[in-house]
Design a protein that fits this description.
Chain A: This is Sorting nexin-2. The complex is a heterodimer of chains A (495) and B (403). With 495 residues, chain A is mainly alpha-helical. Chain A has 13 helices and 3 strands. The relative contact order of chain A is 0.10. In chain B, 34% of the residues are buried. The chains are: A mainly alpha (495), B alpha+beta (403).
């Protein structure tokens, strides 16, 4: 049943079609058994840029045509294996991404496989041009909700536990509906794992909501006032959006960490996300170092596309920030307005009371009531504004920061490449000198070094290309998603 | 900043209606006003067929201080003790908006030119609104004086209306201001004293009732006025907030190149229109509600003053009675004491009568004015709410229809 699959994109590995497993067995369990059978797992190092599709290993496309589920398993197996190997294997997951993500219409890439109907993975065609656009790929077959914040524990050790509910028809999950309890640091842990795996290869990992010491402390201390409930609500909504964005990303969806996060009932406590821990400090130092680095790296951008995009993102970032600031001011003033209206309503009521002309008195008290209603309305409006508009904007600002981070990684990669090249040259020179001076053993050593460095150079180059490609892909996805996401809530908010 | 205002030609945003009782024998209006650096010059035009005046139509230029002078002249005049003197118009105050304009001028460079132009426009509109209000207040003051059968016959009033040259009323210098201030303190102390005097019994229920009512009313209306001001201010801030939002959306829209662009542009337009609407809501509220409340706050203060004067007269009367009794027991100076007592009695009586009349007038005036303003306020709010719903709905349709 070769499904219709058309040339799926990029071949990264196998397109397996998880969904198709009729028996809905847990792919992984069966996969594990077949692990051995899988041919060489893709070694991280050999990510050939152009050769993306052949994941140099694993069941070649040929096998893939088989309808047999078993074969699919194979494919998966490979992926499984690779996934476990040192993190540099993002490519793998891209294929069978069940998640349907809105497709980039025009841009080059989007390894999106349209899941559903795919029964048999088809041979991959490397030609990107043939990527079809899943028309309106908005079929979400995975839905995530974050709800029911509950306070667990007491005092300073208390935390809020959120229920994460997943409804999915993807067969890579063991059940179609399940929920687990997670706390905020779990989310952060997930993010840091994903980031460490994917960020430096060029994928845009959605940023997690920020830690807020003040907010959490208030909640911990147990103040039952409106600001802490607001805070919890804000956080819940942000976490939900974060998870939704993450699963929309085809590559990230395949990640076992993500799956574990969604499925397993117990999660090892992610300790190094605590704000004041050693890891936190390390992170801060790293960030500072990065910032300095950024200023010193001078890269001559050979690719105009990148330059343009970077510029665009800069602009977008600035504008979004401005818009965000104005919207915050708007929300604040609206809250003020509602408070003032309430106060006025009260005094109008009192005035009505003291007025002895009955009709006027009645009129005034009605005025008071109306004002009160208006005040409620304003409050609601303020909240709506806030949640939809403002939060969305801040999400985007963070996303853009993530994008910038990705670009930065690219620069670093380039620099490494450059460095490797330079070193190679030096080594060559040394070799030449050695030749002249005729010292055989040194020559040998030099030759070795040269080989080593050559390899590194090649590696660097490949990395760089890879990153560039991935970035392009990602940016394409990002743009489209951004549009849809931004559009809908705003329209709703207006109403 | 120069600004000219044709108050007579356009509909005056007056929140207080003055019923001229169809009496056209004396009509006063402020036909023009010019604002110069610090002061505002009003052109007061009078049309009258009264014999006092040399001509039937004439106009003079007056400044704010001269209005205050007139008001004080009334207040200090014993004859009018039994009447509610219309409250003096408030000083024209452009400080706030002038400051804002200045701040805008030095403003930061992050606002685009369109934003700057819009904000400047807003501020100018605000300035104009304040200007109009102050003209209206002054006019209402004069018109109430002209309408009142007793007050309009005051000589000072005539001088005010007619005397072609500058009345050379200098603003109160510091000594006078201080004096005025002290007098106020004395007055309120006196009042407190009188009211707490045990011997003083209010003979008339009506006045007793009025007193309690007025006291309470005055404080509550002052409260309401303050809060209404705050509401209006928030509304204005809100309207102003829309400006940067709209500008940012605009620039976002011009950056993007596809479907999102039109959405952004539409949104920008939406916010722009919303802003205008909000601004109008704010200014309407301001006019109808706040101004009215403020005016009646002052008016009720004037009524309170009247009551105080009456009370004072009562106290004097009582004192005169006591003095008479004392004189009678001592049998000395009975005559003078008697005549003094008579005088006080008469004064008290006449005061009471006129006060009663005035207070009734006050009430009916107040009721009708509130009614008119509240009705207008409700209608306007309704209109604006409908307009904004329509606007939002249209934009929503347009946005949905996009992709």
């Amino acid at each position: 049943m070769a499904a219709e699959r058309e040339p799926p994109p990029l071949g990264d590995a196998k397109p397996t079609d998880f969904e198709e497993l009729e028996d809905g067995e847990d792919l992984f369990t069966s996969t594990v058994s077949t692990l051995e059978s899988s041919p060489s797992s893709p070694e991280p190092a050999s990510l050939p840029a152009e050769d993306v599709s052949t994941n140099s290993n694993g069941p070649r496309p040929a096998e893939v045509v088989l309808d047999d589920d078993r074969e699919d398993l194979f494919a998966e197996a490979t992926e499984e294996v690779s996934l476990d190997s040192p993190e540099r294997e993002p490519i793998l997951s891209s294929e069978p991404s069940p998640a349907v993500t809105p497709v980039t219409p025009t841009t080059l890439i989007a390894p999106r496989i349209e899941s559903k109907s795919m029964s048999a993975p088809v041979i991959f065609d490397r030609s990107r041009e043939e990527i079809e656009e899943e028309a309106n790929g908005d079929v979400f077959d995975i839905e995530i909700g974050v709800s029911d914040p509950e306070k667990v524990g007491d005092g300073m050790n208390a935390y809020m536990a959120y229920r994460v509910t997943t409804k999915t028809s993807l067969s890579m999950f063991s059940k179609s509906e399940f929920s687990v309890k997670r706390r905020f640091s779990d989310f952060l842990g997930l993010h840091s794992k994903l980031a460490s795996k994917y960020l430096h290869v060029g994928y845009i990992v959605p940023p997690a909501p920020e830690k807020s010491i003040v907010g959490m402390t208030k909640v911990k201390v147990g103040k039952e006032d409106s600001s802490s409930t607001e805070f919890v609500e804000k956080r819940r909504a942000a976490l939900e959006r974060y998870l939704q964005r993450t699963v929309k990303h085809p590559t990230l969806l395949q990640d076992p960490d993500l799956r574990q996060f969604l499925e397993s009932s117990e999660l090892p406590r992610a300790v190094n996300t605590q704000a004041l821990s050693g890891a936190g400090i390390l992170r801060m130092v790293n960030k500072a170092a990065d910032a300095v680095n950024k200023m010193t790296i001078k890269m001559n951008e050979s690719d105009a596309w990148f330059e343009e995009k970077q510029q665009q993102f800069e602009n977008l970032d600035q504008q979004l920030r401005k818009l965000h600031a104005s919207v915050e001011a708007l929300v604040c003033h609206r809250k003020e307005l509602s408070a003032n209206t309430a106060a006025f309503a009260k005094s109008a009521a009192m005035l009505g009371n003291s007025e002895d002309h009955t009709a006027l008195s009645r009129a005034l008290s009605q005025l008071a009531e109306v004002e009160e209603k208006i005040d409620q309305l304003h409050q609601e409006q303020a909240f709506a504004d806030f949640y939809m508009f403002s939060e969305l904007l801040s999400d985007y600002i963070r996303l853009i920061a993530a994008v910038k981070g990705v670009f930065d990684h690219r620069m670093k990669c380039w620099q490494k490449w450059e460095d490797a090249q330079i070193t190679l040259l030096k080594k060559r020179e040394i070799e030449a000198k050695m030749m002249v001076a005729n010292k055989p053993d040194k020559i040998q050593q030099a030759k070795n070094e040269i080989r080593e460095w050559e390899a590194k150079v090649q590696q660097g180059e490949r990395d760089f290309e890879q990153i560039s490609k991935t970035i392009r892909k990602e940016v394409g996805r990002f743009e489209l998603i951004k549009y849809w996401e931004a559009f809908l809530p705003e329209a709703k908010a207006i109403a | 900043m120069e600004g000219r205002q044709e108050a007579g030609k356009e509909s005056k945003p007056s929140s207080v209606s003055v019923d001229l009782q169809g009496d056209s024998s004396l009509q006063v209006e402020i036909s023009d006003a010019v604002s110069e650096r610090d002061k505002v010059k009003f052109t007061v035009q009078t049309k009258s067929c009264l014999p006092h005046f040399a001509q039937t139509e004439f106009s003079v230029v007056r400044q704010h201080e001269e209005f205050i002078w007139l008001h004080d002249a009334y207040v200090e005049n014993e004859e009018y003790a039994g009447l509610i003197i219309p409250p003096a118009p408030p000083r024209p105050d452009f400080e706030a908006s002038r400051e804002k304009l200045q701040k805008l001028g030095e403003g930061d460079s992050s606002i685009t030119r369109e934003e700057f132009a819009k904000m400047k426009q807003e501020l100018e509109a605000e300035y104009l609104a304040i200007f109009k209000k102050t003209v209206a207040m002054h006019e209402v003051f004069l018109q109430r004086l002209a309408a009142h059968p007793t007050l309009r016959r005051d000589h000072n009033f005539f001088v005010f209306l007619e005397y072609g040259q500058d009345l050379s009323v200098r603003g109160k210098n510091r000594k006078e201001l201080l004096g005025g201030f002290l007098r106020n303190i004395v007055k309120s102390a006196d009042e407190a004293l009188i009211t707490s005097m045990s011997g003083l019994k209010e003979v008339d229920d009506f006045f007793e009732h009025e007193r309690t009512f007025l006291l309470e009313y005055h404080s509550r209306i002052r409260d309401a006025c303050l809060r209404a001001d705050r509401v209006m201010h928030s509304h204005k801030c809100l309207a102003d907030d829309y400006i940067p939002i709209s500008a940012a959306l605009n620039s976002l829209g011009t950056q993007e190149v596809n479907q999102l662009k039109t959405s952004f542009l539409k949104l920008a337009e939406l916010f722009e229109r919303l802003r205008k609407l909000e601004g109008r809501v704010a200014s309407d509220e301001d006019l109808k509600l706040s101004d009215m409340l403020r005016y009646y706050m002052r008016d009720s203060q004037a009524a309170k003053d009247l009551l105080y004067r009456r009370l004072r007269a009562l106290a004097d009367y009582e004192n005169a009675n006591k003095a008479l009794d004392k004189a009678r027991t001592r049998n000395r100076e009975v005559r003078t004491a008697e005549s003094h007592q008579q005088l006080c009695c008469q004064r008290f009586e006449s005061l009471s009568d006129s006060a009663k009349q005035e207070l009734m007038d006050f009430k009916s005036r107040r009721v009708s004015s509130f009614r008119k303003n509240l009705i207008e306020l409700a209608e306007l709010e309704l209109k604006h709410a409908k307009a904004s719903t329509l606007l939002l709905r249209n934009t929503l349709v347009a946005l949905k229809g996009e992709p």
